[in-house]
């Protein structure tokens, strides 16, 4: 039975930003649809958060997105906020990568956003409100040599988000793209940078707070492209 709360749909609910987003929107009064391929992690968050429900979904597969959104509508209601946080990434130069890596990342980062927006925007248009937000990074703005299998997909994701924003903005739906110029504070990133000071890392909860802000900006002052980085980041 659909929830009486507004619904936030979040992809890529992993141990960092995704989980922080689920907690922030649940605390803010939303029923949260949490999407990820790891069902065990979703089950643990379900036990922690009231009004949150996990859905095993590979956002690289259109049929899985369609099936999942149908289930979310049926069980929680139509999403009012959609956050595409799932990411496909890999390192390697253009001579070294398997071209399939670039194609697979494109399916997650770009086509995943397209399919999510196409299936959730019509209900937002009908009500004249809503938000669609994608999380990105500096690869959306520059192509380093070792990011040939990743940066092109994030740049395309940013441009797709801008196109969607220009289409949906006049219809009352806020679309935003958040560039995260930082190393996110996770167990594995701490292991990779054992000597880095605490202030080197960006906190998932801080990212979630900024996305909450973007999703609730006053209509006279909407942002499209926003950036986050620790105060000590050299940029």
Describe this structure in words.
This protein is of the alpha/beta class. It has a single domain (7-181, 204-223), classed as 3-Layer(aba) Sandwich (Rossmann fold), CATH 3.40.50. The protein has helices spanning 17-27, 39-48, 62-75, 99-127, 151-168, 187-192, 204-215, and strands at 7-10, 31-36, 52-56, 79-84, 130-137, 173-180, 183-184, 201-202, 225-228. Helix 1 crosses helix 7, helix 3 (62-75) packs parallel to helix 4 (99-127) and helix 4 runs parallel beside helix 5 (151-168). The longest helix has 29 residues, at 99-127.
Give me the count of strands.
9
Which consecutive residue ranges, at least 5 long each, have pLDDT under 50? none
Helical stretch tally: 7
User: Major beta sheet, specifics?
Assistant: 7 strands, parallel
> CATH superfamily, called what?
NAD(P)-binding Rossmann-like Domain
SS strand fraction: 15-25%
